[in-house]
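Known limitations

Files may contain more than one protein. Parsers should not assume a single record per file. Below, a two-record file is shown to illustrate correct handling: read the sequence, read the token line, then continue until end of file.
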Amino acid sequence: MNGDAPLASVVIPTLDAGAGFAETLAAVRAQQGVGPVDLVVVDSESRDATPELAKGAGAHVRRIARATFNHGHTRNLGAALARGRFVAFLTQDALPADDRWLVALIDSMEREGAVGGLSRVLPRPGCSPLVERSVRNDLVFPPRRAVKRASREEIERLTPLQRRILFHFNNVASCVRRDAFARAPFPGIAFGEDLAWGERMVRAGATLVYEPESIVIHSHASALAVDFARHKADATLMRQLFGMVVRRGWRDGFACWREEVALDLRFVAATSLPWREKFRHGLYSPFLRAAQVAGQVAGGRVAPGGAPDRPEMLPSPEGRTNAD
């Protein structure tokens, strides 16, 4: 990287992001304390105006074939095109909550000498109470800052669940040091590239930091089939990385389903929604949690494989033009 390289780049993979994407682009452009942001959008053949919105915001846009999208490889491509010393990753529907999202993350990484940082994620106002409860239960919701580093001996003493928490990294909103990331980019896997990368970094003696002062707004409801597939993929990854079975068969799954539905009903009842809305969400809860638990049971039955192959080193950014 040359001496006049920008401090920060933001990489956003996109596919038919919709008109609301303009708000995310504007929020990225409004970031303070980091100088002009180098914005890179990797678009998977959107059929709407996503590429035009990105170019209008001054982004470098690289188009790729939709069939070639891969969570790890596509973000690595964006990072290879990035010019910043820090490279942040956002999903297309994650909205920085204020103009300090990026500088808060970078400052936290600088204080700890961390190679990667991850932001706090809050639910969108007005989202489904079932979605809100899921966001609140996620590892990137707590208001407490967490520095993630451990010796090999400390790691070996942890349970699989404790390791999963320690290694957690989240590409809804994250940031990496480009020089370190160039030597160890995301593995080219279909799901969980962020967690797999976090595990490798901490095991290698590096530091990650979760910074709750860096906030994005992100939540959305999805179809039952999508929830099933996501929870199956997550459970499969837990076996591959940690030898951890999330749900041990249908009896365990049923107990979890019953507990989740009960917690949903209590959460919904405590909201200020009209009773008709409470009834509707309460009625949907058993179906939602059944799809998720079924995915966890199915994923736990997938034969565990080895960890994803270690990826190649990233090239330096070159040949960037807005015609790409």
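...continuing to the second record:
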Amino acid sequence: MMSKAQSSPGNECPPFPESFDRDLYGFRDDFSLWMSALARRVALKKDIDSLLELHSALQNDFSEQRSALYSACRLDCQNKVMALINEPIPANEMPFEALQIGVAGSEPNGNKRWHLTVDGGSEHQLFYGHSALANHENYLQNHEPIGGTLVLDGIWPPSTTVRALSFPGEVGLKVNLFYDDDALQASFSEWLKSARKTINFPMAGKKVVKSKELEDWHRMRVLPYMDLWLYQEAFKLHFDEIDIARLLFRSEDDEDDKNGIGDNEYKKSLQRTQKRAESLIQPSVFFSLRYEET
């Protein structure tokens, strides 16, 4: 659950971040954008949780080294939450850079030269030609069709040799395209069984999301609420609930007053938003979301 930042009794509510603008959170029914936006906040909440644990440890056992680490982590969290507030909607792109493969030219010996661009620009070259193809059977005998190591949330199992990945449940996988599809599919099934046993990721059951839910999340102002909470935790501030409720839900004109909509209605709306936000920012819920066309 989202804990509330503490404030000293009698202190006035500090100002909201100047760059916060609820109207910047404008997308409604683009599921890929929602997932990308939520992913950033799920990851940042984890950083915030680690920061709070470090602060608690610092209170119980102070050291200059631990204090310096806490200050660095806190500054990192502050920078990240301000980046969210300044640009709440992520660019509409794939969560992982696409693998691009193309013939870039030929070598003097007639072999094709291929360029592979992976992970946002690191470039590798793969050369093969008559000699490699002539030794095809020997090559297959010495190279498995599916390979890769399993990484859970940056914690390396004893045999891993690849980099840690961004989110829990992601794994590295190497596919050898010299094998035919049947061999790859059979090998992947075996690899997947081993991966499931090794990771044993506690994932929630599949949660189907339709466009109506996305509209509700937008109407409830789930993302701006998340960012205001993260901001409070990162900067050790406290905003009164009624101030947050007015900021998120009050109309800019006087229509609310004319229709008898006041603070009680704002507070009820905030309570519903808080409950939904606290659910969606949990990793097990986030990873269970699946979109279904209406």
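Parsers that stop after the first record will miss the second one. For reference, the second record is described as follows. The first helix runs from residue 31 to 60.
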